[in-house]
Amino acid sequence: MPRNGARRQAVAQAAFKRNERIVLDILQAVGRPMKAYEILEQAYTEGVTAPMTIYRALAALIEAGHAAKIAGINAFVARVAGERKGPAAYFICRRCGEALERPLGDAMLNALFGEAADRLDTVIVEAYGACGRCAPAAKSRA
Ligand SMILES: [Zn+2]
Known about the structure:
This is Fur family transcriptional regulator, zinc uptake regulator. The protein has a single domain (2-129), classed as Winged helix-like DNA-binding domain superfamily/Winged helix DNA-binding domain (Arc Repressor Mutant, subunit A, Orthogonal Bundle), CATH 1.10.10. Helix content is 41%, strand content 17%. The chain has helices at 2-30, 36-43, 51-63, 106-113, and strands at residues 67-70, 75-78, 88-93, 99-103, 125-129. A 3-stranded mixed beta sheet has the order 4-3-5, with no helix packed on it. A hairpin with a 4-residue loop joins strand 1 (67-70) and strand 2 (75-78). Helix 1 packs across helix 2 and helix 1 (2-30) crosses helix 3 (51-63). The site of zinc ion has 8 residues, from loops.
């Protein structure tokens, strides 16, 4: 029985990883933040039909640093390769929906929060506006 249980768990793990792969592939292919239902629409052709499956895969991808949630628009985005570990700031274009990721290194967090930077457990830094392609002639704020 334990063998059977272990096998079932291994199968479940393999299935879970497959779903993570599907979700990450979709996020990377689209290249901008997506709502969970948009991901589900695209994952449907891969046989992923349950919203909970998408949310579980997203949670695992976020935990592993492969994806991030954009809280202000309740959407998810693939993280830039190589910048996956630490917290990041996002600039989201309201017109085309593209998100620009910038790493928030220790120096930046220390400058912002001083000694409290060591005790942060959640960092959400999001800026919204128009990207250079959508508003190339926008005046500077200065
Ligand atoms: Zn734009």
